[in-house]
Automatic annotation (TrEMBL):
Keywords annotated in UniProt: Oxidoreductase
Organism: Rothia koreensis
Gene3D superfamilies, per database record: NAD(P)-binding Rossmann-like Domain
Family matches, as SUPFAM superfamilies: NAD(P)-binding Rossmann-fold domains
GO molecular function, one term: oxidoreductase activity
Protein name: SDR family NAD(P)-dependent oxidoreductase
Family under the similarity heading: Belongs to the short-chain dehydrogenases/reductases (SDR) family.
């Protein structure tokens, strides 16, 4: 039986690259995002190139009922892998940003991700088979002043996903949190160029590293050796230093 992978945020960047990687493996796809035209074009391209079946679902994951609606729209179709990749960041101080925009960010990055995970995980546990990948960030490893809500949302994703790894380890379900660092995508059109700190990786490099990490057993991975050094190294420094360095980097 052909496996099916559901990817949110597949209309650009890391999600688009991941769609190609899974199609290359011969897996059918369910692609989710708001921009239907981009999803349709991607579905046509990878459907032709790899001969896989690609279903497109356009929806706004900032809607509080998005996860339930997505589960309903997928229906009885068996989903082997869920990749919660959709997400966005905003830079600026919490006091200055539009509270509605911050709400939307938490809804997409945390609420929808949790709702989608919980709605597909039960079937996977029951089947003793399945994979959940949640895209966190190196921003999960320390608070980031001027991107405070984004970094906090990714700390939520990392913590949730690592705990799920342990909850499901004996049920044949592979759970992985992926933590990219700065990656050249449309992300910075929303987050602002100031958020582009350090050396950029490409979305293709992140997708390749993720596919490799999936074959391992670790609950999470940081993409790129320099990102790994910075993310893990921050835990050895006094918190006040880490906050000052992070604040200076984004400001
Ligand atoms: N780029 C980086 O430096 C970086 C670093 C660490 C982590 N990440 C994480 O990587 C993931 C992918 O981001 P990316 O870098 O590939 O950026 P991207 O090119 O901007 O892709 C973001 C994807 O999320 C989707 N999305 C955003 N808001 C949505 C909503 N309300 N409803 C449905 N879909 C929505 C977008 O689709 P539509 O606009 O069509 O809806 C798009 O497909 C995100 O979770 C991001 O936080 C990125």
């Amino acid at each position: 039986m052909v496996s099916t992978t559901l990817i949110t945020g597949a209309s650009s960047g890391i999600g688009e690259e991941l769609a190609s990687r899974f199609a290359q493996r011969g897996e059918d796809l369910v692609l989710v995002a708001r921009r239907r035209d981009r999803l349709d074009a991607l579905a046509d391209r990878i459907g032709d190139e790899f001969g896989v079946d690609v279903e497109v679902i356009d929806m706004d994951l900032a809607d509080v009922h998005a996860a339930r609606e997505l589960r309903d729209r997928v229906g009885s179709r068996r989903i082997d892998t869920v990749i919660n990749n959709a997400g966005f960041g905003l830079s600026g101080d919490v006091a200055d940003l539009d509270p509605e925009d911050l709400d939307a960010m938490v809804k997409v990055n945390c609420l929808a991700l949790t709702g989608i995970t919980s709605r597909f995980l039960g079937d996977m546990v029951a089947r003793n088979h399945g994979t959940i990948v949640n895209i966190a960030s190196t921003a999960a490893y320390q608070p980031v002043p001027h991107m405070a809500v984004y970094a906090a949302s990714k700390a939520f994703v990392l913590s949730l996903t690592e705990a799920l790894w342990a909850e499901t380890a004996e049920h044949g379900v592979r759970v992985l949190a992926a933590c990219p660092g700065p990656t050249e995508t449309e992300f910075f059109e929303h987050a602002g160029r100031k958020a582009a700190v350090g050396r950029m990786r490409s979305a293709g490099q992140v997708a390749d590293a993720l596919m490799e990490a999936l074959d391992g057993r670790s609950p999470s991975f940081v993409d790129g050796w320099l990102n790994r050094l910075i993310a893990k190294g921050s835990s050895f420094l006094p918190k006040a230093w880490v906050l000052k360095i992070a604040a200076a980097a984004v400001n």
